Amino acid sequence: MIKLTQINKSFGRQQVLKGIDLTVKKGEVVAILGPSGSGKTTLLRCINYLERPGSGEISIDDFTVNCRNPSKADIHKLRQKTAMVFQQYNLFRHKTALENVMEGLLIVKKLPKEEARRISVEHLEKVGLGNKLDAYPSQLSGGQQQRVGIARALALNPDVILFDEPTSALDPELVGEVLAVIRKIAKEGITMIIVTHEMGFAQDVANHVVFMDGGVVVEEGSPQDIFSSPKEERTRQFLKRIT
Ligand code: ADP
User: Fold this and answer.
1) Which residue would you say has higher pLDDT here, 211 or 69?
2) Separation of 48 CA from ligand 1 center, angstroms?
3) Ligand 1 centre and the CA of 16: distance in Å?
4) Within 13 Å of residue 153, how many CA atoms lie on the same side as its CB?
5) Cα 30 from Cα 80, distance rounded (Å)
6) CA dist., res. 133 & res. 116, Å (int)
7) Where is the ABC transporter domain (predicted)?
8) Which of 4, 24, 84, 123 could be stapled to 151 by a disulfide with Cβ–Cβ 3.0 to 4.6 Å?
């Protein structure tokens, strides 16, 4: 349902993505692993045009964007179909948890206020924050703030949720609660692409694992393939270093 074809991206002279092809099926959870600087975050950000690829194609279902000359409408549509969960949560500081989740529903989806509120409450309850609707980000732990970020993404009912290292800013004791929420929504069949350094989590939540290095996909396969019998030396070295 999501198909990336030959995605290229450079920052100045540095080519960060070198012809990435990736297919993600509906309901699949894909983990993207790889050393720091390999282009994982940039790839994720290209999927919803937070970064503009230099060339390539992005398809979601039967909708295709040619990245060389996308129209504004194409980019808008792509953003409607995707939602991002950021490393640093990216919540509005002056809005409550509820208002943070409602924002996209009011502004992007243009829903009536009551409906936006109902959907937002439902999703905050789903991530275990039904009792924190009126709390401001500063009154929430990092784990709770990230759960608001996840509720915000879920509430938009996107075709795919893109997670950019969702636990890397958290204190170790708060990582578990966020991974538990992601695990729960993965079971509901929501398509997800997750950039993560949590190998254990990738191994047991992902259906498909992609290993990137130096702006290319070095190897991909089932968690079993990648973690138990990686074919490429670069994958083996990485796993040896990190586990
Ligand atoms: P990863 O997520 O695998 O750590 P990134 O996608 O963040 O890798 O970065 C890949 C490369 O692109 C790095 O060398 C990084 O310094 C560079 N890079 C990322 N974002 C920018 C940017 N906005 N401007 C210039 N260089 C960037």
Assistant:
1) 211
2) 16
3) 7
4) 28
5) 20
6) 13
7) 2-239
8) 123
